[in-house]
Write a structure and sequence with these properties.
The protein is of the alpha+beta class and 1245 residues long. 34% of the residues lie in helices and 19% in strands. It is built from 34 helices and 36 strands. Strands 8, 9, 10, 11, 12, 13, 14, 15 and 16 form a nine-stranded mixed beta sheet that branches. Strands 1-2-3-7-4-6-5 form a seven-stranded mixed beta sheet, sandwiched between helices. Strands 23, 24, 25, 26, 27, 28 and 29 form a seven-stranded mixed beta sheet that branches. Strand 13 and strand 14 form a beta hairpin. The radius of gyration is 31 Å and the shape is globular. Belongs to the peptidase M16 family.
Length: 1245
């Protein structure tokens, strides 16, 4: 066994690492979660083999269960990207944040093969194989065994296929880790891949493809692949997704046995030397190493079948030589100096400039492309973005190399500049590109031959930011940590063992020569392609299917024609129909339109004219362009704020202890309690006891003595009068799931008899450890909680800015959206500088509910400086004058109107998003849709906007939370600053030089008392009736149909909330298994709880491209009708209790990050419930629940006459009869006028 150097880790990283290579050649990173390790020992979890032994009876019962139930595998739909690429504009109607779970154990395996290795005759094979490994192994042959076990044990699993590697990962409760790891290990030893399972899972691959068929990003990537060198010359041209055509129809026509090819591909590339395993658990490194070696020793060290593209594994090196490196760059010269104009699905205008570079993976120490991207993508003064915005041509600029294998590969790298254009910018695309080349030319001149002449502060700031990001990095969820690290360990990456943790974060050196070589040699016109995807060329739905064609002629952009060879073109013999409705620019003709054959994307391809190339080679230097100035938001102090002396920091605060009075004669009796406070002036600890009594004890030792203490240690206080015994020390994130209740937490005989241990419940959180009001003046109230868990110089400030107008009209909602967009647009130069330094902000409008949400978070040193700048700008709109504030740039109002018009056009474009929007708007009567807001943009003027904005902001109140490295004085200073700004009448910030100077001071508004804040109004569905909403998909070309069945439980109360959570847990896994895995209704099948404005509910959901809306809806009904008889009633007590325990552990959450905890606390404030300890109380209720209670609840809420239900259907192409959108909106409006409303569940106070 080989041991690699220990990786460098952050000073704040408490994990222990060991990097080894097993005898079989498998490289493994072992991570001991030291915090969880101590907790595991406290509750007797050691990782021994005896702990994960099944009895024959257990295995038989679990196997039987596995045949009927499944965990949602939810393999990621794109190579290295999350499903949907953000295409769904779903509105989250949940009022509770996802609490995650206990600090779990996790594992991830990276296999060094991906879509670039697919054979040309079976494209998508890597992705298909990823799906198949979940379908049973020789040791665990049941098709659903892995998922069923993880579901029962409170775990989760996932996988994704990248271009050069594939990653599989899972997490699970600590005590079940090694059992789950053994099942997982068999994926890489002996998977079954049965033929019948292959046929069924192919439907899942097809459904996944159809879900993303309308994704513009996926389409644009495929245009890149389609126009690259042919597959025989470079695998970049492959179709990575795969679908039924590429994996069944075409292979069968060519007499290729897909099932045999799957096995062959697995045998070629799934071997130990080509794999990287990462595991984390609350166990010692020795224990992890022992168990991993035992379970993965059977993985074959070398390929079972000689690979088509063999990888070289040097015996004396950790690097792998990829066979892809021989292919070189993906685009032939004929595909460069070319512009591709692409027809989108959505209403959008984007331009991308792409240069192909040699592979950059080996340049990780200097990352010259990151340096270039930092300058070109900068958004501060003097940037490309600033220049383009002044001209009215763009809204955004992003630059660099993407982290996925599409852009960063062993064969090549693609450096792109992506520009979000305005309509004018589409017409002025040459000027936009010239501005980019003007900036590049400026960089060339400043940098000189060796890049040594760039201002020194640029690299110094890049290095400083990397250093403090790494130094103060926040903990990751174990599942995220192993997944990210496995990805970094991909055989194609070049990080040495000691740098696997910091290699992607730190800047190690500056290489000016490499920077200049890229600028001079590669970022040239001859090595560039331009892609413009714009609805100015029409949208996909404007054209008939089959329109356009492919030939080998290429239009020259000045109207000439020339022969070309670029692209692996496929001719389309279909006759061309009449010209489509859109009015094309004069330089485009329908007859010249080409069609990418897989997604059917229409596009034009033209060579750049010699005059255009000459213009880019010798650009006019744009005035106002300059390199970034020194960043004023670079933090200068990382000191942690001191706690008040009467509640000072102490190593034992939060610890659970047992205390005995040694003065008492006779047997020593210990009483359980927790240490809740330390008074440094009195050197005394405050203990809260089980009976809620409290007592102070003067300690006899200093902080150094106590900092060395560990669990089970003892000490005396009050000069030997009392003895303390430590039960559990607090860790970062809190006590976690095993933070013991008073006593030993093992008192449930019913659970103990069944070998199911309910997690110990911690004592109530001390009031001083929950948010307290620290400022309350002038309609501004701020809660405060100083962080004691994470000990980093970070803070979170979240503000709810409530207005006196609730249930806003479409006009007011639209004006609120304009206001937020103008804010973001006007503040970008300042906000970007802060964001570079890990200080970020977000402003969102929820105008219909009568409020805005501000979030400012990051390093606390300059947080209030940024907050003051933003709030002063925001409140400048409340004056109600006829002119915009002076900081709004010339012409930017019209640009924002145009941008929002496209945004509204694109909302609800997918059936998946639309079905959720319909449900939410039905439950929130009067909530405007995107059509009504788009209509309000018509004829919108500055005067009208300012009048309505002034009306909205005239009377506002603020309720907020300041949490993190913030002392009480900081909160008071923040409150005084906000209260002062609310009295101001004009903007006085230092940004007027960017505006038109025409702003006038308006009248200051009044305050809105907290008690007058608006509350949610939610529709109460009719008892015993199922309401129906049906609509056609907004995108006529969307093949997906989406169905939701929503059941309204009622007003928020603790028992119904817990019953709903448990019911969802019991439903979601068998629902997924039966409907998705076995019956292949569609890739997206789910069940989830909803918390809509204080009203509890849950929803079952299917998105399908192969079933009609009626079939999907009927299948949900059938599942629910059979749920009691087929699933709940036969469920043994043991399995039911395991589900209860799994849910309880998920609720007893040890916070991973400050932001996660802030989200929970702020959510309780903004919904007015203010039950900061709610998860503990939920677990107390959960412990008392019985199966009969759940059964009765289900019958009442789902099957009984008292149910309140809503069925929503969005019908895609081929999913059923089409429904007019106007009819739907009239129905929702009609229902809104007569439906009963719930009374406000919680009221502001």
């Amino acid at each position: 066994m080989k041991v690699y150097p220990t990786p460098n880790k952050s000073p704040n990283d408490t994990n222990e690492y060991r990097h080894i290579e097993l005898d079989c050649g498998l490289r493994v990173v072992l991570i001991s979660d030291t915090k969880q390790f101590r907790k595991n020992l406290d509750v007797g979890i050691t990782g021994s083999r005896e702990e994960d032994d099944f009895t024959d009876e257990d295995e038989e019962e679990d196997s039987a269960k596995a045949k009927d139930t499944s965990m949602d595998v939810d393999e990621e739909s794109e190579e290295g990207e999350e499903e949907g690429e953000g295409d769904d504009d779903e509105e989250d109607d949940e009022g509770e944040d996802d609490q995650g779970g206990e600090r779990k154990a996790a594992a991830a395996m990276c296999v060094g093969v991906g879509s670039y290795f697919d054979p040309p005759y079976l494209q998508g094979l890597s992705h298909f194989l990823e799906h198949m490994l979940f379908m049973g192994t020789e040791k665990y042959p049941e098709e659903n065994y892995y998922d069923a076990m993880l579901s029962k044990w409170g775990g989760y699993d996932n996988a994704y296929t990248e271009m050069e590697h594939t990653v599989y990962h899972f997490d699970v409760q600590q005590e079940r880790f090694f059992q789950a790891l053994d099942i997982f290990s068999q994926f890489f030893v002996a998977p079954l891949m049965k033929k019948d399972g292959t046929e069924r899972e192919l439907e899942a691959v097809e459904s996944e493809f159809q879900l993303n068929y309308a994704s513009d990003d996926a389409r644009l990537e495929q245009i890149f692949s389609h126009t690259a060198k042919p597959h025989s010359e470079h695998p970049f041209s492959s179709f990575a997704w795969g679908n039924k055509n590429s994996l069944q129809t075409t292979p069968e026509a060519n007499k290729i046995n897909v099932h045999e090819e799957l096995r062959k591909f697995y045998d070629q590339y799934y071997y130990a030397k080509n794999m990287r395993l990462v595991v984390i658990g609350g166990f010692s490194l020795d224990c992890l190493q022992d168990r991993v070696a035992e379970m993965f020793s059977a993985v074959p060290p070398s390929p079972r079948v000689p690979p088509t593209l063999p990888l070289e594994h040097p015996s004396d090196d950790y690097n792998v030589t990829s066979p892809l490196s021989k292919f070189g760059m993906p685009f032939a010269p004929e595909a460069l100096s070319t512009i591709y104009r692409v027809v989108p699905v959505k209403n959008r205008h984007n331009l991308s400039l792409t240069w192909q570079l040699p592979p950059q993976l080996q340049n990780w120490r200097a990352n010259p492309t990151d340096y270039i991207g930092h300058l070109i993508g900068h958004e501060g003064r003097g940037s490309i973005l600033s220049a383009l915005k002044r001209s009215g041509w763009a809204n955004s600029v992003y630059a660099g190399i993407g982290s996925d294998g599409f852009c960063m590969a062993s064969s090549h790298a693609l450096f792109s500049i992506n520009v979000g254009l305005t309509e004018e910018g589409v017409e002025k695309w040459e000027e936009v590109v010239e501005t980019v080349y003007s900036y590049i030319e400026m960089m060339r001149k400043i940098g000189g031959q060796d890049g040594a002449s760039f201002p020194s502060h640029i690299y110094s700031e890049i290095k400083a930011v990397g250093d403090f990001k790494f130094r103060f990095q926040e903990d990751e969820e174990p599942s995220e940590l192993v997944e990210d690290l496995a990805d970094e360990l991909s055989p194609c990456h070049a990080y040495p063992p000691e740098h696997i943790l910091d290699g992607s974060t730190l800047a190690f050196e500056y290489d000016g020569r490499a920077v200049m070589e890229i600028l001079n040699k590669y970022m040239t016109c001859n090595n560039m392609r331009i892609d413009i995807i714009s609805s100015s060329y029409g949208r996909d739905s404007d054209y008939e299917e089959g329109e356009g064609g492919e030939d080998d002629t290429m239009e020259v952009d000045d109207g000439e024609k020339e022969k070309g060879k670029g692209g692996n073109s496929n001719s389309n013999p279909n006759p061309l129909p009449p010209p489509p409705p859109p009015q094309l620019p004069h330089y485009l003709r329908v007859a010249d339109q080409l069609v990418e054959p897989i997604f059917g994307t229409k596009y034009w391809r033209s060579k750049l004219s010699s005059a255009t190339i000459a213009r880019f080679k010798n650009p006019s230097l744009s005035s106002g362009l300059h390199l970034p100035e020194p960043n004023p938001y670079l933090p200068e102090s990382f000191d942690l704020k001191p706690f008040p002396s009467d509640d000072a920091a102490h190593p034992l605060v939060g610890a659970l202890v047992k205390v005995a009075d040694l003065k008492t004669k006779g047997k020593t009796i210990f009483y359980s309690g927790s240490i809740v406070k330390f008074d440094s002036t009195k050197n005394s600890l405050l203990v809260s006891y089980e009976d809620e009594d409290k007592a102070w004890y003067k300690v006899d030792n200093d902080l150094t003595f106590f900092s060395k203490m560990k669990n089970d240690d003892s000490f005396v206080v009050e000069k030997g009068k009392f003895k303390f015994k430590i039960v559990t020390l607090v860790e970062a994130g809190g006590l976690g799931e095993d933070g013991l209740k008073f006593g030993d937490g093992a008192g449930d005989d019913d659970l103990a008899e069944r070998d199911v241990v309910f997690p110990p419940i911690p004592p109530p959180t001390e009031a001083g450890r929950m948010p307290q009001v620290a400022f309350d003046q002038n309609c501004c109230r701020l809660y405060h909680l100083q962080d004691r868990l994470f000990n980093r110089p970070n803070a979170e400030l979240r503000l709810k800015v409530a207005t006196s107008i609730a249930r806003h009209s479409p006009l007011e909602c639209t004006v609120a959206d304009i206001l937020c967009a103008l804010m973001g647009d006007s503040a970008v130069e300042t906000v970007y500088m802060a964001s570079v330094c890990e200080l970020s902000y977000c402003l969102s409008s929820n105008a219909f509910d009568g409020h805005f949400i501000f979030r400012v978070h990051g390093f606390d040193d300059k947080l209030l400086k940024l907050t003051e700048f933003l709030l002063e700008m925001f409140l400048a709109f409340r004056g109600g004058g006829k002119e915009l504030p002076s900081f709004v740039g010339e012409g930017r109002f019209d640009v924002i109107i145009e941008m929002l018009g496209r945004k509204y056009d694109n909302e609800n474009m997918t059936a998946s998003a639309f079905v959720t929007d319909m449900r939410i708007r039905y439950l929130m009567p009067g909530k405007p849709n995107e059509l009504s807001k788009k209509k309000e943009l018509e004829g919108m003027t500055v005067e009208k906007f300012m009048e309505v904005a002034g009306k909205i902001l005239r009377n506002v109140g603020i309720d907020g939370l300041f949490h993190g490295n913030a002392a009480l004085d900081d909160v008071k200073r923040c409150g005084q600053m906000i209260a002062g700004l609310m009295k101001r009448t004009s903007f006085t910030g230092k940004t007027t030089e960017n505006g038109n100077g025409k702003g006038k001071a308006g009248k200051a508004g009044g305050g809105l008392p907290i008690k007058n804040f608006p509350v949610d109004v939610i529709a109460k569905l009719e008892v015993g009736k199922t309401n129906h909403l049906i609509a056609s998909s907004k995108n006529e070309c969307d093949k997906n149909t989406a169905v939701e069945h929503y059941f309204q439980v009622g007003s928020d109360n603790m028992e119904d909330l817990v019953l709903t959570d448990l019911l969802v847990q019991l439903i979601e896994e068998p629902f997924f298994d039966n409907v998705r895995t076995k019956e292949q209704f569609g890739y997206s099948v789910s069940c989830s709880e909803r918390w809509t404005g204080g009203i509890i509910g849950f929803v079952l959901r299917i998105v399908s491209s192969v079933k009609t809306a009626v079939e999907c809806s009927s299948r949900i009904d059938k599942f629910l009708e059979r749920f009691l008889e087929d699933i709940l009633d036969p469920m043994s007590k043991e399995i039911f209790l395991e589900n209860v325990v799994g849910l309880a552990k998920n609720k007893l959450h040890a916070w991973t990050t400050l932001g996660e905890q802030t989200g929970h606390l702020f959510g309780e404030i903004t919904c007015y419930r203010k039950n900061f300890d709610i998860k503990r109380e939920e677990v107390l209720i959960l412990k008392a629940l019985t199966k009969q209670k759940v059964r009765d609840f289900f019958k009442e809420k789902v099957l009984g006459q008292s149910r309140r239900a809503l069925k929503v259907q969005v019908i895609g192409e081929g999913g059923g009869n089409k429904v007019d959108r106007a009819e739907l909106e009239n129905e929702i409006k009609s229902e809104a006028g007569r439906v009963e409303r719930y009374s406000a569940v919680y009221t502001p106070c």
